[in-house]
Amino acid sequence: MVAPQILLPGDRFMTTPAISVRALTKRFGDITAVHGISFSVEEGRVSALLGGNGAGKTTTISMLLGLLTPSSGEVRIHDIDMVADRYRALPMMNFSSPYVDLPHRLSVRENLRVYADLYGVPQPRRRIDELAGALDLEDLLGRRTGQLSAGQKTRVALAKALINRPRVLLLDEPTASLDPDSADWVRTYLEDYARAEGATILLASHNMAEVERLCDRVLMMRAGAIVDRGSPSSLLARYGRSTLDDVFLDIARDRAAPEGEAA
Amino acid sequence: MNGGTARRMFALVRRYMYLLRGSWPRILELAYWPTVQMVVWGFVTQFFVGHSTWVANAAGVLIGAVLLWDVLFRGQMGFSLCFLEEMWSRNLGHLFVSPLRPWEMIGAAMIMSLVRTCVGLAPSWVLAWVLFEFSVLSYGPGIVAFFTCLSVMGWGIGMTVTAMVIRFGLGAESLAWVAIFAFAPISAVYYPVSTLPGWLQPVAWATPSAYVFEGMRAVMVDGVFRADLLAGAVVVNVIYLAIGATVFAAAFASARSNGKLLQVGE
Question: How many domains does chain A have?
Answer without folding.
Answer: 1
